[in-house]
Specification:
Helices cover 59% and strands 15% of the residues. The chain is an alpha/beta fold. The protein folds into two domains: 6-241, no CATH class; 246-368, CBS-domain. The chain has a four-stranded mixed beta sheet, with helices on both faces. It has a four-stranded mixed beta sheet with strand order 5-6-7-8. Strands 9-10-11 form a three-stranded mixed beta sheet. The radius of gyration is 25 Å and the shape is globular.
Length: 375
């Protein structure tokens, strides 16, 4: 998955992103909390309610971040890279760049999130017990204790890709020794749970006249259904690519551009051909790679006066792969580095390019021909 959103910093070396949808849910949470606190504690001033609502929202999303960091810490313990953590509309997601090596690792990585949320719930519960009833610290701690407990419990639903679904998959994986089959089973159960949530939401919204709860359950069910389908598709993709090498999916047709070409001219060339990357040559010698992303990093008003050579990735910094590297490993590196292509190099020669599009074409062809297999 591509990383999206605004980078707000790093924790333990892991980039933290905030998706644009997060701002919407943060504002909604704050508004709802101010209303909830106001109905419970009418003696508090508007400033107190707003301050407590903002603080509670911040600590809640801090709790979500702690939940995802717990997954990440266990993953990194097993030397599984974590590309990023993104906070978004429905909470957060840790982008773990490859699957665990065993069912046991999967179980511990998945379980770390709910355990951490229950730990936070216990800590906030103790804080609530230690503070006077009706005080602002008591109200904050009580709400966060209940919400973290609810978050952990919801995540334990056995629907993939929720934590409970991953735990369930690890158990099936351990029993069957078949990763693909266990993922398919967990994804199917995830879809069933999603449909159930959407049906319950529709009942609440149209029969029980609880439109707020109904809306959220329909939205959560839809999100879970989409994620479960994507997870199922990911397994099919891995099966289609298993056993293939970079040389099998690379394109040998490598478009080139001259180093003295202006970025304005390069933009026209990229627009005409639809290609996102070009090799940069000078006197028949490779000197770098020009990508659409590098073009977009230069202010548009500077395109006419900036050469391709000034914006390209130099040959020394060129991301590359060997022809014999497994495609699954190549795809993992591309996703981790958030890039669209890798040069395929043998000795001192570039023999091809592996792109996301070339990989996708292979997946589509093998899927249509019935070559998707799994272990």
């Amino acid at each position: 998955m591509r990383r999206t959103g605004i980078k707000i910093g790093r924790v333990f070396g892991i980039p933290i992103f905030v998706h644009l949808s997060w701002f919407l849910i943060f504002a909604y949470f704050t508004y709802s909390l101010v209303h909830e606190y106001g109905s419970r504690y009418p003696q508090w001033s508007t400033r107190q309610l707003l301050s407590l609502g903002l603080l509670t929202s911040m600590l809640f999303f801090g709790s979500v971040l702690f939940h995802e960091l717990s997954h990440s810490a266990v993953a990194r313990h097993y030397r599984i890279p974590v590309a990023s953590i993104t906070l978004f509309f429905f909470g957060g997601i840790a982008s773990i760049t490859r699957d665990p090596d065993s069912a046991g690792q999967e179980f511990l990585i998945a379980a770390a999130g709910p355990v951490s949320s229950y730990v936070l719930a216990g800590g906030f519960w103790l804080l609530g017990r230690a503070t006077p009833d009706g005080s602002m610290p008591n109200a904050l701690a009580t709400w966060l204790a209940g919400t973290n407990a609810l978050l952990a419990t919801f995540n334990l639903l056995p629907g993939f890709p929720l934590d409970g679904g991953r735990i369930f998959r690890s158990i099936i994986w351990g029993i069957t020794k078949n990763y693909s089959r266990s993922t398919r089973i967990a994804a199917r159960i995830g879809q069933a749970i999603a449909y159930g949530m959407m049906a319950l939401g529709a009942y609440w919204a149209f029969v029980a006249h609880s439109s707020g709860n109904g809306f959220w359950f329909i939205l959560l069910g839809w999100f879970l259904l989409t994620a479960a389908r994507q997870s199922y598709a990911q397994v099919a993709t891995q099966g289609a690519l298993r056993g293939l090498r970079a040389a099998d999916v690379m394109t040998s047709e490598m478009p080139t551009v001259g180093r003295d070409l202006s970025l304005e001219e390069y933009a026209h060339e990229a627009s005409r051909t639809g290609r996102r990357a070009h090799l940069v040559v000078s006197d028949g010698r490779l000197i770098g790679l020009m990508r659409i992303e590098a073009l977009q990093a230069v202010p548009r008003q500077d395109w006419p006066s900036t050469s391709v050579q000034a914006a390209m990735i130099s040959r020394e910094q060129l991301p590359w792969t060997a022809p014999e590297e497994p495609v699954l490993s190549v795809l993992e590196r591309m996703r981790s580095a958030n890039i669209d292509q890798l040069a395929v190099i043998t000795g001192d020669s570039v023999v091809g390019l592996v792109t996301r599009d070339s990989i996708l074409r292979v997946v589509q062809a093998r899927s249509e021909l019935g070559h998707v297999t799994g272990n």
